[in-house]
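Researcher: I'd like a structural prediction for the single chain below. Treat it as a standalone chain; there are no partners to consider.
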Amino acid sequence: MIGFDPMYFLFVGPGMLLALWAQYKVKSAFNSGHEIPVASGLSGAQVAQKILDAYSIKNVGIEEADGFMGDHYDPKAKMLRLSHEVYSGRSISSFGVAAHEVGHAIQDAEKYAPLVIRNGIVPLASIGSNLSFFLMFIGAMLNYYNLIVLGIGAFSLIVIFQLINLPVEFDASNRARAILLKQGLVSPSEEKEVGKVLNAAAMTYVAATITSIMTLIYYAYRYGLIGGSKNDE
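Model: Treating it as a single chain, here is the predicted structure.
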């Protein structure tokens, strides 16, 4: 079973379309929020530092990173890496994204269980991502069904990672909105605008999860684990 299969798009197509829509929404929301300056006049880096100080987190640094919306928290290096638009920006979008990433640092400091599990499964998910397609391809070429099943099992690690990642990301966004308001870094009206940016960003994680789940179901269907037949070529 090697080659083009129209059924792939029947299973995965809706998730791919949702992902494209989510990417459009998050870019649109970020660009709109970037046009709204915050009353405090602080930059994303400055608001991130204020939140870290408020939570007495002294072992996390902040640095500017390359790439548009390449913002992330590195738990190994204990480093917040913020894109130029967020690091130097003084807008609703800059505040929202910066606070979201600080939310991950707070999760790390508090040993937030889903984050601990997610960090633990990252190496396995990486292995699954690298090996799954290779195993399924070789298994199909050699007509070795057990190798195909092993490949599908490896891909399931990606799905597990995505499922665990959802509560981690939603919790970080919820923390970000609450922290900004509690610390007086934004007004209630500004907090609502921050929410629009973070809600749009959350849809990208939902889309990625749905796409990975539907891809797994497709492979299970195509190779006979559910419905059909494993001998159907």
